[in-house]
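Entry:
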Amino acid sequence: MDDVKDQVLLSIIVPVYNAEKYIGACVDSLLDQGFKKNELEIICVNDGSTDTSAQILSRYESNPQVKVITKANGGVSSARNVGLDEARGKYLGFVDADDLVAKGAFSKIIQYMEENDLEAALFPHVTFTEDESVIFRSPAEQLSFTLNTGRNAKTSATVWSFIVLTDIIQRNHIRFHEELKYGEDYLFGYYVSLYIQPTKQCFVGETVYYYRQHVMSAMHQRDQKHTQQHMKGMLTIANAYKSMLEHFEEKDWRYQNTRARKDTATMAAMLDAAKLGISPKKFLCDLRDQGLYPIQLQWWTLRIGGGSNKKTWLVNLACFLFPFSWYYIIFSALIKKLSSKRA
């Protein structure tokens, strides 16, 4: 844009698929961020919705801050990539169609980023379900910010937990992996973190994002089809991390982080394979053929606290010895035996 005053400061990409119950409240919360008319663009990508989402979005098309794009259904990654191709803002963020953002939070974050010449800002979220009453709070009048002074970029894996300089994404041609059904936001977030200067990043102290967790999602986690798709996704992600390793020297912190992520994704796939009853010897051979095995001991898993996350801690503990093939073979046999008893 020729006139700096007309520059869009923030682009927010909202993928929309059958979100008729929530999309209105989501867009309303984004319009309540305290930006001037020409400073914000909300890009709603209707990904082939079959409910009334399109009609609801049409009510916002007269608002200059809202841009509605309709496309054939291609999945959330496809929708976000379309939004990335359209984004004009200096900064970029993602919001899911069923979530909410605290009033005025984004404008305060952008102001701080501008004043301190930052490339990224990370913020906390509150998770709520349909049967929970959530107090939707506005952030403090003056948000608290902490600058990152470490040597590693800390961009969150969840794409809706940060705002980033758009040029970082566009200049490095970072896009969502459209074939992935699970973990695509983890991969995207990590790609972004590799290009952020660690000392040009800040953390927000107050709750900014309200993430809606649907009750049915926990049931879907137990479905065999889901496990198969998750395993396939984890292998795709592990191979993506393996490809990244070629760009870093072994002493580089990015090499160490990326290798740990590759091994973690591989372990997740190994756990899925055990649940599915796949021959552990054959699966290990396949992993070796792909260059994904052997893997390193993930010592950090033993430092995870319990609390409400005890199940995750137990799973991590059980997977800790996966680097030893003999243990994985025994583990898989045990899981298979337990599964046959339940059946």
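The first helix runs from residue 23 to 31.
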